[in-house]
Predict the structure.
Amino acid sequence: MHHYHKLQQTLDTHPMGAPPSEEFLEILKILFPPGEVELAALMDFKLRTAGEIARRAGMPEKEALQKLEAMADRGSVLAKKLDGQPAYALLPNYPGLFEYPIIKGVDGETLKRLAKLWHAYYMRAMAAELASASPPWTRVFPAEEALTEEYEILPFEVASKMMERTKAIALANCACRISAGNCDKPLDVCLAFDGAASFLAEREMARLISLQEAVEVLKRAEEAGLVHTGNNAADKLLFLCNCCPCCCHFLRLITEHNYTNAVAKSSYQARLDGSLCTGCGICAEERCPVKALNIEGDHAVFHPEKCIGCGLCVSTCPTGALRLEKRANHQPPPATTGELVARITATKKL
């Protein structure tokens, strides 16, 4: 058992966090069976060659390589090349240990068990850990159908523009919806980029797609009423999820746990023109994921403090009563992922 405790403690050193709980230890037992957990407990988040990890473990390199490859194939550890040699590192909980084994595909009983354990762990410990990040780990991108040329649109504000900067794009199924199963929204809408895309495609957890195909994924997601969320940095995308408020571990921080600032809002906000509203209810009943709109009598009522700026209400308003406008005093996201991590780490040490 001490190997699992040690592994949990190492995972908890990541800024993402991995707080201790009995449920998490059970998750680790599934993801790292005996014979492999001993190796994982010697690893950290830095890529190291199989030879270095084998020396740490005092075992033949060939044996260590077989075990490391088995873990990488299941999505339990990250695998890349380092100076032409196979190299491996631990993954954080998100994106990583939660998503990758599920999208790789585990047998039905294991999936049920993992889903139950992750739900319990999320509710007991991980939701609060995710919500403690300042700035937030993820941010909202507006639905592009809702944007107009009235305002200057900065590249980091638009998902498709951010995707143009990437070198590789992979499409995977949504682990949140597979695990929670609370809705019938599309599964094949989660995007990974560059190094993560290559890893997921190589290990058959995702498939590489073109930029045009990725843009079509965004359109499908918007039509289905899914919120674009990605890593909260202005320089490049690492992942882009298309999220529902009933399954997504990050949106549920707002909708279920009332951590209203746990996901960074987009630089836009909806605006309602009551004179044009007919009270059809589409915005409140079908599109707004955070209950920022409700129907009173024969008109919609807008609660701006709740709005995350996803634009889903705007793109389907039949009368044009809703539009997106620039959010006042909006703070841009951290310039890089490194800056994001540094700022979160600094606030956690306070």
Observations:
- The longest helix spans residues 108-131.
- The chain has two domains: 2-128, 136-349.
